[in-house]
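task queued by scheduler; priority normal; single chain, no ligands, no partner chains; default sampling; output format set to structure tokens
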Amino acid sequence: MSKILIVDDDPDLVEAVTMILESKDYDVIAAYGGIEGLEKAKTEEPDLIVLDVMMPDKDGYAVCKELKADPKYGKIPILLLTAVVSKISTTRYTQQMGLETEADDYVDKPVEPAELVRRIEVLLGKA
């Protein structure tokens, strides 16, 4: 059973994604911020990380960059989940920042459950 870490500061989104993934027989771990997400990535060693970009304590770009730079965790696929594209004009985040993080894939919020599962399965080599 693949273990997936979901990192997002929105508890409703975490709960929704957890239910979707658990229904597909994934083992899901939740973290509600970038710092907690980094800690859980290192202690749980998930098979894949679904990572929100805009979080108050440490944004997803910084978390992704830190994990990808570490030889022990750099091979874990990271799917950035982001509302950034629709908010680029109102935030300090840019698409270029996303491309520079070495994330394995990124998907815009809101995401259809079937599309999220499909992208996760592709990253895990199950599709």
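post-processing summary
- The chain has one domain: 3-123.
- The domain at 3-123 is CATH 3.40.50.2300 (Rossmann fold).
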